[in-house]
Amino acid sequence: MIQLFAILLLTAGSEEPTQVEFGRDVQPILSKRCFVCHGPDEGTREARLRLDLPEVVGEEQGVIVPGNPEASELILRITSEYADELMPPPGEEPLTPDEIDILKRWVEQGAEYEGHWAFEPIPETSAPRGAGWVRNEVDGFVLRSMEEAGLEPSIEADRATLIRRLSFDLCGMPPTPAEVGTFVADDRPAAYEELVDRLLATDAYAERMTLAWMDAARYGDTSVHHADGPRDMWPWRDWVIRAYKSNMPFDEFTVEQLAGDLLPEPSNAQLVASGFHRNSPTSDEGGAIDEELRVKYMVDRVKTTGNVWLGLSLECAQCHDHKYDPVSQEDYYRFYAYFNQSVERGFQTRSGNAAPLVMVPTEEQEAELAELDREIQAIEDFFQGATPPLAAFEAWHGRERQALLERDTPELGEWYFTGPFQKGSKKEAYETDHGPEALKIDISAEVAGKRWIERADVDGNIYNLGSTANAAVYLTRTIECERAQTTTISLGSDDSIKVWLNGKEVFANDVGRGVTADQDQATLELPAGESQLLLKIVNGGGPMGYYFKMKGEELPESLVAALKPELSSLDDEARALLLDHFMRNSWEEGVAQVAIQEAAVTRRDEVTQVTATVMIMEDVAEPRMTYVLDRGEYDKPRKDQPVEPGVLEGILPLPEGAPANRLGLAQWLVHPDHPMTARVAVNRYWAMLFGRGLVSSVMDFGSQGELPSHPELLDWLARDFIKSGWDVKRALKQLVMSATYRQVSRADEERLEVDPENELLARASRFRLHGEFLRDQALVASGLLVDEVGGPGVKIYQPEGLWNEVSLDRNLRFSQDHGEKLYRKSMYIYWKRSAPQPAMSTFDTPIRDTCVVQRQRTNTPMQALVTLNDVQFIEAARHLAQRLLLEEEAFNARLDLAFMLLTAHPADELARRVMRETYEAQLPIYQANEDAAVALISAGESARDESLDAAEHATWTVIASMILNLDETLTRE
Amino acid sequence: MTMDPITERSRQVTRRSLLKSGANGLGAMALGSMLGREALAGGISARDVPHFAPKAKRVIYLFMNGAPSQIDLFDYHPKMRELHGIELPESIRQGQRLTTMTSGQSSFPCVAPMFDFKRYGEHQTWVSELLPYTARIVDKITLIKSMNTEAINHDPAITYINTGSQQQGKPSMGAWLSYGLGSMNRDLPDYIVMISRGRGNFQALYSRLWGSGFLPSEHQGVKFRSGKEAVLYLTNPDGIDAGTRRRMLDGIAKINEAKYEETHDAEVQARISQYEMAYRMQTSVPDLMDLSDEPESTFELYGEDARKPGTFAANCVLARRMAERNVRFVQLFHRGWDQHNNLPGEIRDQCRDTDQASAALVRDLEQRGLLEDTLVIWGGEFGRTIYSQGALTENNHGRDHHPRCFTTWMAGAGIREGYEHGETDDFSYNIVRDPVHINDLNATILHQLGIDHQRFTYPYQGLEQRLTGVEEPHVVRELLA
ipTM of the assembly? Predict the structure, then answer.
């Protein structure tokens, strides 16, 4: 764009001096050539000169003297003949004569500074009126630019092309032949708009928009770093689908995802939405330093937020002031401070979701849980109002009291703790005696330099014991009883556990697990007198913990206390406690109720066990202090430079009353006066529909980014988007309703010559479909698609061994799904980020370990290999062939159906001739070699119609595969 | 692809839009590179590189994943024998951070290598008994004993050395070279990756290590695998023979050419060419991977392991075959060097699997006249600690991650022969002379390819991105012949 204007400028300039525009002509030169040493970054600034602010202009300073280039140091320096004066200094690339000329003329014309366009408020612009071709405001702006360049709009594309274009752009799916037929036949002017409305109302629309958002949100089904273990974020992805389906306004969409957890009394859905930033890559690496990782996650969140909503890369200000845009290092850490409040740890799990998280039951699960809760409560209510026979209670009391008094319940001493003792591996830590295992324990003596420390743990609870990896800790206590007896202890541990009684090993379980109550039971043969119990807990990675409870005394402590006095001397509270216990345990009617209740509780546990969870955001209760990190390093906080959370005030001050947390940040982003959010969003929609953005650097609206090709149009769209209440469907509809969108994509010689990149929009764009859309198109055409919305990721066909050859410890096998899951829409493909599904990766689906707001579109031989050879595409080809054979009789009718399914057009003469030749050559080959024919039509796991002639079926499979590989099939015209 | 007028014209269009569109006209950029193949074969560069006459045309990077112990292989100090068993002095550790695998250890006993070291070659270079073959090529290589990085754990460290950044999302070195230098052959990818399994503790790999980051994804490394299909999806489906495939491609091309006539879209032309390239790969790749035409002497040189597909030795033979076919960048990842425990046994096995073939590759390239313009690099992502991780026993111990120093070697393409660079203290803990940061190494590799690392940039997100990062790395001129 810059060059295009520069060229126009110079050609015109040969006649008379043209007006130089600061933003269009001057700022890019200053930014690219001068700001590194004379820009916002204080750290690299030379000669205390800043060229990014208007204060530099003035006679006193002499750097830039308006109207007088000869007196301006700036011009003298860039034109100097002396090496020691010349700027940029020798060694750097010199300014071109054109660049020097522009700067000179700018000074001549008064050296007007303007702010960078994207940081300036969005002005109200009115659309140029136009007649004839112009259908809506979009066209008015576009036509004006076209006419200025001497171009005319292209004609409107035919209806078949339009319906296919709309279907892919808005829904990521091809139209059915019936839909094409209806639309082509319907010549009412309203037909187009009705089609658009119909498409925008589909689930497919919501899924298509979600796919783009998944790239931006760096969505994946695994954690990325180190083991790259599984996680469940798909309930968040399904939330996004529902949000697009219901056309949630973009401001709400933003607030709920950035700060759903901070809304007043957030709904479950709002909590799920806040999972946006839990898509961050996380690590579980054994030697990792917790704070280093934690900081890394926060940095990723700042980066993603900047990329997605501001179209800015903030990350360079992590280490130093931004070189080009007004973001100081302190600004960066103020922005970072919003995220730095997250409760999550740096070291996260390699298996499943890490806290904080929320359960996401399905509708059935939700209903069942509610019913079970009701049932459980009803039984509690029953006990509240029950009147058990008093005589039976008194008799029970007498018996129990007597038994208690006669029982010899072992007495447990306090726990003592020592450790951690770290080794090179968990196995080694488990197998090594770090000191106390064989010896008589003396709690006053040290174990390998570590003391025994008393703990006040209460039995029957889970306790955390730190998080040292590959380490063992010990816990010991005394047990005293009058008579020798056998008793049982119930244990839990993270991870492995060993138990000794009086120096003798009595239990061991070498496992990897998180701790819960009652994971193991061990039997203790207690001699009379005092015994010494020793537990060893061994941790592989992550947190470690334990659980302990002694069986034997079945009655809870409070009950034992209540049971000791005589019945007559009981207070009301103790009596109620005993009565309750009696009812539940010894009264027939009560016991029956308890059994029902226990069944309900068990079922409730079963349901919650299989209920999905999703990771969400949550802030610490006490705000965490944020400091500027020296050179961005986690372990070098500048303690003298604490910062409070804060937005980029230079762009827009924080709205009044906005809280000092992520919610405030989100409110700032979607404030109607924010100059960037709406521009960035509508530009992204534009890029989705037109193949490139009005700002072609979709991810960079900063001063190094490209200038908008149609600045007024962009501003008009942005303003309109805000005024409409951030109505996404309306914004998209407005774009596709334009005449600009409806043009043919064919380029004639003149258009190619004048505007090879189609910046002026005098034709439609033409581009290859995303990999997901290509696979989905093949599944639709072949009838294989299982079109369900949402749910966990699916593991489709992929070549063997891809996970294992890169996995930690080489023990991770890809386990392919079967049946319907093989034919789900491609956006649901299980996304393993260390080894993403290769067919999709080949077609530019990003790894999704970092935010991507515009996909690349490459054209490579590896792509040809996928659509020609991947079993998924061959299976689709043979099902398509089967469909052609079953649905049509004549050769040409079959061919037309295939072309209608894949290109929305019937086959033309050339295609008929080529396919006829193919048919005639292939059929005898397959007739002569039935094995080959059967092999081809057996590709994939789905059944084939064996009533069809194998040679005929195989030949049509070849034809179907060819059509699946045509440029027209792979391309959105 | 012959240079017909249409292609010629679309090439010009593409070159023009390439210059104009910067990072943003990605479709066009991709096309540019494809068509650029032809242009580059004629010696024209679309990206202003090489900046000066290159010494290296191609690179073979033997990446030792998991971090081999420099102490047990190269960085020997006789004084270590006296230090064996003593506590690591605070004067050496200087409060430097450790991983959380050993930061809780109450004792840090130093461990001398449990192997013999001898001096080899003209400069009397210390080499471990574990590397008898490498020992015999010390006069052909440069050993850099002062490599260092900041990353202390595998995932960030391996990402750092391969992409110049600890944060994911940046292109790998091979992708940068594919982007910058383009292809020298018509039938194979510019950047090929092969993985061999190794023994012991397997650290993970990630496709981002050979990924293209923000560069067009056609520049990502293409993984070549042992087994029935060397390149994913390379093989025709069962029931499609070569004749059928040819007929299909001819038919597709006819219809696509008509589409080009209609649309004048250069992407259509590009697609026709890419389908042809895919077809050529179906022959060229199996031909490349088939070692049956190798003479017996090859297996004598590289070892019997080279007969077994998927071994490091077999991959070394393949790397040489790729060099012969002018593949720009070949990267072998050999796994299993992460010896936190049982180091003495495991490192012996690892060396047995890699030593002979690594040395053979250098010799073989030399005898074929390829070493003079092929750069060979051997090394991992960081080093290992002098102190034992876990208990030190008479014949067993482990070593933790050590980013402060490690050893890498290079050979060929204008690299000095028989040279040792840098020096560490007697504990192989701190560098005492001539540190070489991983970004310095990468800058030096680029330099040998005729690239000024400072000028080799790609605009992305408002920054001039480069492989060697924003700090000031330096080409290590002492390494150059």
Answer: 0.85
